[in-house]
Amino acid sequence: MSRAPLRTDRRIALGLFLGAFAVLFATEAAVGFVRDESVYFAAAEQAVRWLRYLLQSPVRGLSDAVTTQAFDFNHEHPVGMKLLFGLSFQLFHETLGLLRPATAFRLPALAMAAAIPAVLHAWGSVLYGRKAGLFAALCFLAAPRHFFHAHLACFDMPVAAAWLFVVYAFWRAETDEGWWLWTGLLWGAALATKHNALFLPPVLLPFVVLRAYRASTGKPAARELALKALLLLAATAGLLCLLLLLLTPEGFVQSWAFLSPQTVLVAFLAVGLLVLGVRLRKTDVATFRAVAPLGAMLLLGPAILYAVWPWLWYHPVDRFAAYLEFHATHVHYAWTYLGTVLREPPFPLSYVLVVTALTLPISLVAPMSVGLLSLGVRSIAAWRPAWRARVTPASASEALVGLNALASIVLISFPDVPHFGGVKHWLPSMPFLALLAGRQVQLAGEGLAAWLRPRLRRLPATAVTPLLGGVLLLPAVTLTAHVHPYGTSAYGELAGGIPGAASLGMQRQYWSNNVTGVLPWLNAHAPRGARIWLHEVVSFHDYQRNGMLREDLRQAAGPADADIAVVQYHQEFREQELAVWQAFGTTRPVTGLYIDETPQVVVYQRR
Amino acid sequence: MPSPEPRPSRLAAAEGAGFLLVALLGLGFQAWLPTVLPKDGDERAVADVLQREAEPGDVVLLHPWWTERARLFLPEGLPVVGYLGDETDALLEHPRIWVLAQPSLPRTPASAFAAAFLPGRTRLGEERHFGPLSLSLYRNGRARGVRFSAAEALPTARVTLAVPGSEPVPCVQDGSTFRCLSGAHAEAGIHEVFYQPVRCLFVVPPGGPGAVELTFEGVPASAALRLEAGIAWEHAWKRGGGLTPLHASLLDADTGAPLAALSVEPGTEGFVAAEVPGGPRRLRLRVQSDNAHEREACLVLRALDAGGTP
């Protein structure tokens, strides 16, 4: 049976997309530029300059020298989203003049983020019911930090979206024709978005095996072919790992040439998967649908990444290896957690769970955690006959949701993985937690309605779940509205709100974006031509370019050559605020951004 | 097709009621929070009181430590202390402490603050309230008279680069900084040691066996000499990578007799301290580290009276 949503739910999903996009678009202008966003603005603009050059001079534009020059900057991230940011900038700002530069850059990211609620509803409505899908969709975007990250021309929200799209396509592929191909195409797009996508195949592999086993039961020919495909994959992976061990990682990369064992193995895998796939499709469509998504991912994903990222074109192996190495050995930035500045591993194992619980509104923490817990219990029930009479066992679809809800959380929880950046690093888990929350709210609403029906006969039973969902969303919406556009400062009720989190010794904010809180003061009060030091802000010229900071103000390199210093409160940067005290001869700020009493950005003026 | 679900049960109804309660608590919290945040008028009222009643040597201690918005309003000359862990600060230069508190803020346990702050302190008068702000004056029993501060005396000090086997090389005074050969230097300034803002001698040693030596003349007689040494800012937590201990020694400049010796090991956050009886009128402070990389020292050397009366 098809897993396509009903027409009504497709319309609701479209409405959610349009509504979310409209809200994000309407609230975007106030959101400051996070530190890396300005880098992506520049990289996106450079990508578009290369495209323009390509039209003028195709041969030279495609050369190694030019592609390297165009894409070497910020090559630690694939160029997929940056190309979209750049094209949007070219169209909506440069060509049509409709939008300011930052909004034009951000437009594709807004669209990706807006698609998350739509897909959540499309999936949730089929998996659990319409109300569950709707709650999942709304609760995801209502969370203050999700709402904030949804505005940025960065990759965290786009990769969360891409992860969701891939898993959704993978889920649809079990029953619906053609979705196996979408799974592969979408994974390619995800790879071109951010490196998180590299972890998707291991998460999906158990489900491929399970599906193949179930689909091929009683079909020996199909089972044999599916088994061959999986064995081919395992053998190739094993041999490549063996080569990696024998040659050392450096030798493995350096010896990989057009005619080398590595190339032969990969080619053998690709051809083998294609041949087996064609034969399996002819033998048994159900078994084909079980394994084809993974095959499509492995065949199309790397090809798409390679095709859209010109930096890889002439040096695919060593540059891809350099890309992986950058993330495998990423620097650990300081990050404040429960009164301690985390600077180096091992990081606390509980970090991700605690930060998730403290940053989300409690009315979302509750259904998400109950939903996850319930799924855990019901997953055990699926394997224990004695439990099945008491609880509804989790289906494979639910297990897919649950595993993806945990995947990024578990990954970032590893004590050696960089922990700076907070929730944005495990955003790909959150849509799945939202789905589980949706199920739980729908069930609870129905339970409540059943209990209320004999007691409140005039209360329409169908209104209880929407009412419950609405009441649960309200604290999230009010907190989001309260803290906007400073979403990285948001803390939920479990933390005691933003002041409670400050007392707990939690990270006050990310880098750079909250400076928008004092730009109006600077524009109104800074003397003409004043030298301004925007501490930890690389976006000085972006603020000027977007009309947020006066053009006559000049950028200072530090307190020593500044007339006005704008200091961001970070526990690890206290010394820099003291340098301002020293240079300016005062400990008294002239203004600042204080959210619920917590210092975020503090402004000093030279006396 | 939705997954099969159980029929609504009492458990589901209880869950719904629980969710409802949680949501209402969340909304209640959000409605309550603004009521415990001070208004500008409250802050100004506190500032007026302090303008009238604060005496030279007084200090304002913020509780919780991060409520620094008060700096916008408090009188310019009045020191304000607010840093992570400040409740344990002896504030020994300040005989009276004004505690400006926001006791109703979430996660602000009064007991933990009181346990660290109150010993040796006596409240003077009643606590006063200005909206959600409270202001209390304490006599600081941990205060001690400061007869000499090396950071203040630096302009008159003699600063040299001492290398074993050769004559000391004088460091050149460049404004408020003494610059020595090999990049070593010394100056007085405000620096962070484990989040605490401290006015200290900021000394960068030359590396190797050489040392920066600061000689102070005419140190007043006192009950004690107290030397504190820490690594400034973020370099303190680092270990390995060839980092070496920072050695700070206090000597009698007339006799060369060692008075106190401190060693700040890599990874030590905060100050290490030593206190010795006062006496010598000429003091020499010697600062050395085999590897000067990231060994920027923040040193506090003071001549103090005996402990204050609680």
Kindly describe this structure.
The complex is a heterodimer of chains A (607) and B (310). Chain A is mainly alpha-helical and 607 residues long. Chain A is 64% helix and 5% strand. In chain A, the strands form two sheets. Chain A has a five-stranded mixed sheet with strand order 4-3-5-7-6. Chain A is globular and about 85 Å long. Chain A starts with 6 loop residues before the first helix and ends with a strand. The model of chain A has no long low-confidence stretch (mean pLDDT 96). By secondary structure, chain B is an alpha+beta fold. Chain B is built from four helices and 19 strands. Chain B has helices spanning 10-32, 40-53, 110-117, 150-153, and strands at 59-63, 80-81, 96-101, 121-130, 133-140, 146-149, 158-162, 169-170, 172-174, 177-179, 185-193, 196-204, 211-216, 224-231, 246-252, 258-264, 272-277, 283-288, 297-304. In chain B, the strands form three sheets. In chain B, strands 6, 9, 10, 11, 12, 14, 17 and 19 form an eight-stranded antiparallel sheet that branches. Chain B has a six-stranded antiparallel sheet with strand order 8-7-13-18-15-16, with no helix packed on it. Chain B is elongated. The termini of chain B are far apart. At the A-B interface, helix 17, helix 20, helix 21, helix 22 and helix 25 of A face helix 1 and strand 11 of B.
End-to-end separation of chain B in angstroms reads 75 Å
What is the radius of gyration of chain B computed over CA atoms, rounded to a whole number of angstroms? 26 Å
- Kindly provide the radius of gyration of chain A, computed on alpha-carbon positions and rounded to a whole number of angstroms: 26 Å
- Poorly predicted regions of chain B are none
Largest sheet of chain B: 8 strands, antiparallel
Number of strands of chain A: 7
Number of helices of chain A: 25
- What's the SSE pattern of chain B? HHEEEHEEEHEEEEEEEEEEEEE
- What is the 3D form of chain A? globular
Biggest pleated sheet of chain A: 5 strands, mixed
Shape of chain B: elongated
